[in-house]
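User: Sequence in, structure out. Go.
Assistant: Echoing your sequence, followed by the structure tokens.
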Amino acid sequence: MKGKLPKSLSPSSIDLYQQCPRRFYYEKVVGHYSPSGPEALLGTFVHAILEELMDHPSDQRTLDVARECARKVWPKTEGHGDFKRLRMTADQRRSFRWSAWTSIETYFTMEDLGAVDVVATERKVKCEVAGIPMSGIVDRLDREGGNLIVADYKNGKVPDPKYRDSKWRQLNYYANLIEVIEEERPTEGRLIFTAHGQILTTRFTDDSMEEARTVLTDTWDGMHANFDSGSWEPKPQPLCGWCDAIEQCPEGLASTRMIYKKGRLKKSAPAYKIVANL
């Protein structure tokens, strides 16, 4: 079950490799599909609404138009295979949509939508960075005071400051991609936490951009070395409970079992039933 290496890396796949090479192997090399859970699907739905909304002229970015956008993109979410797999009841679907709308209402308190100069939404970017093929999708690229701004929507919780490094690096990956394609470096990256009404910002510097390129290179070289050797070492951690390949990973299974015994594994974790029955 050797699989096939991806031809390029994305910000999310780099982060996945840094989290755990073995999980990267199952998802990106073997192609083991991990269905999106309700939280991820909710975030995708909110993203879709905001993409549709921010494509409108600035004077049309109102709550009423946002409602129309939500109605327009809902069928795609509802028809997604991962959403169908959840088998939600009518009440659960209403709750799901209401949670998304609450995020949209919160977002309207965070930015002056009429003043946002949108260059592009869901911008697909693909090029070589430091000689390595990269690709990704930038949620929103803005122009502000003559500068380019990379904005990334998040619908999850705001991470503790000590866990934000990977989030900053992801923005720096996008900044590197944009710099190569546009021949202009974005000055700032923003994480927009729509469900919690908070925006985190970071400035792109020579050091931060170089650090991102270093991690990109290390990931590229590492995955090739792993592929050639056939060894993909795991990094047991709390996130193992959300890995669908956990049954093929003794180390991750043991770690998650220990977390379960301590009563610290959430019932929403896909691996909860697996370790509970051991």
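User: And one key feature?
Assistant: Residues 32 and 228 are 20 Å apart (CA to CA).
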